[in-house]
Input
Amino acid sequence: MKGRKFVIFIVVITIAGLIKCTKYEEPPLIFNPESLQLAPSPKVSSIIPKDSARAGVREIIINGENFGVTPDNNTIVFVGGKITEIKSLSPNQIVIYRPQLELSKYNKPLDVVISVQKALELAKIKNYKINIPYEQYGDFNNYTYNLFAIEVDKQENLYIATRRALLKYDGKEIVRVGGQLPSDFSRVSDLKFGPGGFLYALVSKNVLYRLDPNTGAEEKYLTLPKECDRLDFDQYNNLYTAKKDGLFIVKPDKSIITTNLYQSVIITDIRVFNNYLYVTSAENIWKHRILDNNGTLGDQEPVLNVKNQGADFSRATISSITFDKDGMMLVVLKNHPNYSLFVLESDGTLSPYYKANILPKFIDQIVWGNSFYLYLNRGITLTRDSVRVYRMGMVNTSAPYYGRDNL
Output
């Protein structure tokens, strides 16, 4: 027993001696900070628009430095914690598309965060607001008929033509203007303000009425040679109208000029802008210069063919157009897989007004108000329980609606 204890003692002494005589060496580092090639941290100098992106703003510009632009040094932008799509990127500027947010985050202070791969620090813009882009305007759920056409007066009152009734919405309540309209008004295809302060309504295939917007009193104005669906006025109070059997010009004295234009072409909208008459079919947009105060039209000039815009547009059809005061054309398309409202860009391509799926997918008609609101009518072709009117904020005002602006 004593021998065994002696052996253990010798072993312990030997190990202790070895430990004392061996120099300690640290194990190799798993991670060497000096070997990491860090990117400079991003910095922000300004954001445009400043403080908030109000309704209608399509893109947000972030200026600064050290933004990563290579695949191994890429940049990500978060707005309110959500990754946003980048339109363009340089070391000193980022352009992002307006983001789609949860409803509860609109109009609330949010953080805009820029993250650059391999940079240790983030760049932040605090308390930035994304204003709500549009809102349902008026409660039409209790109306059992489609909203065939809408129009806005100079006081920003919204007029709505529905089955045998003219409605008016002042932003507070919807009222019926006058009594029940004649059976001709079972369907109204278009509604525009024009000479005398009347609302001009195309009804019953080829009959043009005018309505008193205060009393709802109706007057049969004239009968057109053929069925017509769309109308607009020029600065000389000439009225242009068409559907599928040619384009007609109605002069202020009620005389009608029958043109040889657009025979067997189904017209979906008509709009006068900058001394041109724009005419749309389901697939095309054309324009004619208005040559004089008699409404004489120049040659047909092509503006757009939707089918040339790519595969996503193979089933898309044009239903409504309008312009802002600087000439930007807005185009409503039906049957596009993702979007409803488009901008005709200067290079002839169509791009969605908002890149994110922000707006309602289905729109029938657009009418600009007198300031920074665009009205979206979703009440013509959808089922009655889904009719809606929306009011969309814009960054610009409208091009003239001559029938309204000449009042």
Observations:
- The CA atoms of residues 248 and 258 lie 5 Å apart.
- The first strand starts at residue 43 and ends at 48.
- The chain has a mean pLDDT of 91.
- The helical segments are 2-21, 402-405.
